[in-house]
Here is the input.
Amino acid sequence: MLVAAAVLVGTAGGAGPSPGVTFGSKGVVSHDGKVRYVTRRAGTGTLAEAISTKGGVIRRSRFLKGFYGVPLIAYDGSTGGLARNGTRLIVYSPRQQTTRFVVLDPRSLKVQSRIALSGNFGFDALSPDGSVMYLIQIKSNPNGPIAYDVRALNVATGQLYPGAIVDRREPNEKMTGIPMTRVGSADASWAYTLYIRPNGGPFVHALHTTAREAFCIDVPIGANDNDLSHVRMRLRGGSLELRLRGKTLATIDTRTFEVKR
Amino acid sequence: MRRALVLLTILGAWAALATADGGGPSPGLDFGNGVVAPGGKLRYSALSDGRTTVLESVVIGTGRIRNMTFFKGLFGIPRVTFGGDAGGLSRDGDNLVLATWVGPPSTRFLLVDARTFQIRGRVRLPGRFSFDAISPDGSLMYLIQYLGPPNAVYQPYAVRAFNWNTLKLDPGSIVDRREPDEKMTGQPLARTGSASGWAYTLYSRVKKPPFVHALDTVHRRAFCIDLPWKHSGAWIARVRLHVRGGTLELRRGGRTIGRMDTKTLKVG
Here is the structure.
């Protein structure tokens, strides 16, 4: 219900391109489905926990100073932050001035590194080995919809790679919109995100998380904003399917990015 | 949290030593594994940094946190055996007891509404106590009161009943009325319960036969039933208890090695 409310507000008023973080129940689940990682506010800090999904046993816990949540990556409540190979878990604290990230070892929940970036960033994706983190850098734009850049960060050094990750076919197009839902390829090398825009149709942002490349694919599916908030995506074979209430609205060839309705 | 983990590691090491050397009868507190609700759908776990305790209920099967709260102080889910069995949850699923480490000078207990996590009662008992069992409706709590010097191993103890409605200990101890003068000693190794409110605990003793402590948590009575083995060897730690029909089965490695009729308390 909260997610739906956020989506509605976002659609009407231009919500940010990053949904922020989540504290509590949902967290993020490991690729094998055996462990759920959650963070909870605890006094002046955060309690990070690794919970066995099968038995509900708290396997590990760690107290972190400051408030750090599990990254939300779309307004349907999709979460991220865990590397596909299970070696890194990112939690972060979104702020206007400085965004702070903590990189945890998922097995021990020990802090591997802390990264502070000047500016307003949101988490977007992680490469399969956790070495590259993709961020939404939000740019203030008082006269129009919120614009942003997709940036890549070297997790080992804590440094941003120069420049933004853009669709080289349309390098000058401004990134706008809010992420509605996300699906990733089985090896986590691709992250497909459905965005809606206040002025413009929906598009899928296809991010290659190992090659630091992205492609924006317009998907003229003719659904209204309310319906768009219920669209889900799935990968089948070499196709990305956009589905609404059990029906396929459009199919994108993941090699050519050709859209079929 | 790190400090608490160090503390827990130290205490965990102490518990392990106690087991090996024949320590006192308290298995201590649990942080993380918790206790499973009747029905097997929820697990209650406590975590603490030494000053604050987080109590959570986690959905078994998804790992999602259902409910969470904080308490001031260090409280854990009480362990009831050295085999890792945890207790504190009433059979009706409504009440959960949390405990501090055994005193001195005192031991504290909280009675928590297992659904809302509201505190229903709290008590600080002068002396050294540990949780043993709770009645099916949560109104009565059974405690082990240690009677020897604080650091003594294999010290005698008494089973006491505490009434959560009156917040008072019942006078006297819960003894086997057939042998009222026998001193209680031993280490709890395994536990099972019955729907009617009996708690069956397997105890080992040095150079004595192991026994089953059968505690009727509804009617405040207990029986000690010696088992037909000369000594409590190391193997006894691998024995598990199961209630099947009117029989308490003692099982080891999947094989039943002893049976006790739960009505007559006769061992076969």
Observations:
- Chain A is about 5% helix and 50% strand.
- The radius of gyration of chain A is 18 Å.
- Residues 1-15 of chain A have pLDDT under 50 and may be disordered.
- Chain A touches chain B through 25 residues (CB under 8 Å).
